[in-house]
Amino acid sequence: MKVSVYDTYVPKDEKVIMHFDILVQDNNVIENVYKYGKEYLNSKGISDFQLSTKECNFCHMEMAPDVVEKEIKEKGHYIIEMENC
Fold first, then answer.
1. Has residue 76 got a pLDDT over 90?
2. Is the Cβ–Cβ distance between 1 and 72 less than 8 Å?
3. Looking at the 3D structure of the chain, how many domains does it have?
4. What Pfam families would the database entry show (predicted)?
5. CA-to-CA distance for 75 and 40, rounded, in angstroms?
6. For 21-33, what is the mean pLDDT?
7. What is the pLDDT of residue 71?
8. Distances in Å between the alpha carbon of 68 and those of 25, 43, 49, 78?
9. Taking the CB of residue 40, how many other CB atoms lie within 10 A of it?
10. Structural domain of 25
11. What's the order of all strands across the beta sheet hosting 56-63?
12. Nearest to residue 73, comparing CAs of 21, 25, 32?
């Protein structure tokens, strides 16, 4: 499966920035990407944060490994935690 990768940076507090990638099937709309990002942030205790192109940008496309493809088929997305998650 070909996926789009969205590079996302969100302030966790005044000094710490969370960095994570949101992977979605390549034909997904940006509103869904923001929705998945918000769900992830809520699971980390960061609520009421609106994602926009300021924090979340398309980075590249790649072929997904089987485990990523499986989760995207089940949940619609896959999160890769990079820093301070």
1. yes
2. yes
3. 1
4. DUF2024
5. 12
6. 93
7. 97
8. 10, 19, 26, 6
9. 20
10. 2-83
11. 56-63, 2-11, 17-25, 78-83
12. 25
Supply the CATH number for residue 25's domain: 3.10.510.10
Stated pTM of the model: 0.93
Quote the tokens at residue 85.
Answer: 């998650």
How does pLDDT run across 37-56, given as a tens digit for each residue?
Answer: 999 999 999 988 888 999 99
Q: Which two tokens stand for residue 27?
A: 């034909």
Is the CB of residue 25 less than 8 Å from the CB of residue 68?
A: no
Q: Which two tokens stand for residue 45?
A: 């205790």
Alpha carbon separation from 64 to 18, 22, 77 (Å, rounded)? 23, 12, 11
Measured distance CA(11)–CA(18) in Å, rounded:
6
Query: Whole-angstrom Cα distance, residue 26 to residue 49?
Result: 25
